[in-house]
Give the backbone structure.
Amino acid sequence: MKVLLCSMILIQSVLLQAEDGHNLWLGAKSTSPVKVICSKKSATIDIAREELLKGWMGKAEASVVLTVKPDKSIKGDGFKLSLTGVQASNDLGILYGVYELLRRQQTGVSIKEETINPSYERRMLDHWDNLNGTIERGYAGYSIFWRHGIDSLSVNDKERTLWREYARANASVGINGAVLNNVNASQLMLTTECLERVKAIAEVLRPYGIKTYLSIKFSSPMLIGGLKTADPLDPEVIKWWKKKIEEIYKLIPDFGGFLVKANSEGQPGPQDYGRTHADGANMFADAVKPFGGIVMWRAFVYTASDEDRAKQAYSEFVPLDGKFRDNVIIQVKNGPIDFQPREPFSPLFGAMKKTSVMPELQITQEYLGQSIHLVFLASMWEEFLQSDTYQEGPGSTVARCTDGSVLPQKHTAIAGVSNIGHDANWCGHPFAQANWYAFGRLAWNNKLTSEQIADEWIKLTFYQYSSGNAGHADFSKDWVENFLNPVKKMMLGSREAAVNYMMPLGLHHIFSANEHYGPGPWWAPARVRKDWTPPYYHKADTLGIGFDRTLTGSNYVSQYHAPLNSQFADLETCPEIYLLWFHHLPWDYKMKNGRTLWDDICYHYEIGLQQVREFQKTWDKTEPYVDKERFTIVQSKLRTQCINAQVWKDGCLLYFQQFSMKPIPSDLERPVNNLKDIMESDMKRR
Ligand code: GCW
């Protein structure tokens, strides 16, 4: 019996198609014939038709009618689904409707009459790609847009194919904008040679509804324009930008606009000339306005001042509320520090009444194990989007404050820092694709749950549709119980696991410097800015640990609306997930579960490590259901994740123990690494 079972499993896995992951969630599906009826012709409609022919899983020989006709209920790129087809106000809406229809068929969700509109008008991927082909915080190979070497700006067919595949994947989840270069921008981006290449990229992306945008360097008029200043109020500077912008729109008539990182981490900006962020942003806004362009101005600003870093963006931007042009959107990272495994939402959400504000999420896992750890980020984004800011009373979630539901916004948008590179599977880790997918789905509908997104993604990515599926997606009980459910559980628990083994209970930014991968709570050379060293954030000493951001400390809590400000400040009501974010507490502080703070910290690190051990077991059991390639790569990455989680636990506990001077609770596993070794290997990597 055992032998029979083994050989059946063997046959099944041999039959599973080899998959390098390049097809993402768009891999081959079984289809049945369909007739597509549409009186309109365009490149976008042609794509919609082709997708239907390739992916239809409804009744064989059915007719699908695509109708481009405005309807009061349809907003922007929204659409109306019905049993007979898709109606939309524009061609792009048709394409999105077709993708939704197919997704429903392929994931086994019934189709009924329904109007579906996007939450945000602009759903952006920000690429931190450099012109030499490297990617800042990229963990999946080189850029797909830029390359190194002589002749690096010429365009070839292979590239065009890759861009087309990229565009298709984005369109299938509703992404409609791409910033093609790093926010730490090179002035060379604006040279005519580079702009010609942007034009070529834009041509490929256009039929899929994806607009191109660029990051710009504020001092470009000096660096490539020969001017003596980049002062945004200087007439020559204004003239230079106007001319440059005219040139861009001549090449790319539907160009989306600019993303600007100014006066942040050494980048030039308006403050270099005594001007405000509003002065800088408005200069660009005026210049792109005649062409319908927008300016996304980043609020990620902080200096080495005495003010708590978490407070600085709010202090800088709130006084400017009402001073920005209506085509400026302030782009704010989800947390006030920097894409940490867990942060409370930035208090800038819900703070401005007359300014459009957009969230910036980080899809690339700079602080979450890069392309080695399996961490499904939708859980984090859901937590963030559903956080209540109380801007206009209860229910003013971040989602509703940014999509125009709480207060009207001229423009609405959301951006995700891309995790895409030249690797065959685009994202490095097979499960990192789920984060690209999740970002797109949440940008389209900011009320989706992480559970629903994981469910869809697993089905579309891993299910081997057979010809028996035509007409309906029929997921066998065996597959659901032994693959879908356990894998979903693993994904949904993965972010909390990372928080546990990296920085639980509100700890933040205790990473090894620069690379932001392993632990480094000890790192604090005298030559380095204090706010760039972990002790600034954890403040561990013999008395306790944590950052006091209450009235007795930095008073960051006051940037939140009532009742959050007092909830966070009060130990009785502060959620324990944020405890050490807001409070500096003694090592023997009593937690709600009765443990001391020290013991509870130890338990969290241990639990995090054990969670990854469980992921290994879960994954190993899925072998019969996954192709060999993806099975092996995930298995091997989980092993590394486990080794790393152990280092995180041992490194942090042994380091903090020097201050707490308390034993690790006796029922927990003992450390297996010495602190000295961990610190030495950390130093060697620098
Ligand atoms: O997260 C930090 C990164 C930098 C990045 C910066 C930013 C592009 O470590 O690499 O620079 O934030 O968002 O501007």
Summary: The chain has a mean pLDDT of 95. Residues 122-448 form a domain with the TIM Barrel fold (CATH 3.20.20.80). Residues 628-660 form the longest helix (33 residues).
